[in-house]
Amino acid sequence: MSEELNGFEYLCEYNDLKDSYGQRFYINDVDVAAFKVGEKIFAVSNICPHQHAPQIYEGFVENECVVCPLHGWTFRLDNGNLFGGSKGLDVYETKIINGKVYVKVFKKELNW
Ligand code: FES
């Protein structure tokens, strides 16, 4: 991996992501939901903290938030917080280089 990637892993081509739809990826065993909203790319944990369902990527996207399809918990895509402000999803840094999207994942400390 080149120096400039510095811990970032290849995710997909920028054009593979459809506006306001999520896609699921596994990067280094981390379950990632990636979204394109306008020009922005967001990558968050795909695991909903409510019942630990791996379905965030199927959530409805609105106003840079994603709604878990199971029970409607709503998370901001920029910081992962629940709509009310408390901590929700892990958020992973992304960057775009030459039309390719890269993400820097980390593993969650499992404590459930
Ligand atoms: S599992 Fe996501 S809101 Fe219940």
Count of separate structural domains: 1
Question: How many strands?
Answer: 9
Overall, the morphology is: globular
Q: Which stretches of 5+ consecutive residues score pLDDT under 50?
A: none
Distance between the termini: 34 Å
CATH topology: Rieske Iron-sulfur Protein
Q: How much is the radius of gyration in Å?
A: 13 Å
Measured as a percent range, the helix fraction is under 10%
| Average residue pLDDT | 93
Strand content: 35-45%
CATH architecture annotation: 3-layer Sandwich
> Counting H and I runs of at least 4 residues, what is the number of helices?
0
The neighbouring-strand order within the major sheet is 1-9-8-4-3-2
What pattern of helices and strands is seen along the backbone? EEEEEEEEE
The helix-and-strand class reads: mainly beta
Largest sheet: 6 strands, antiparallel
CATH homologous superfamily identity: Rieske [2Fe-2S] iron-sulphur domain
List cofactors, ions and other ligands: FE2/S2 (inorganic) cluster
CATH class: Mainly Beta
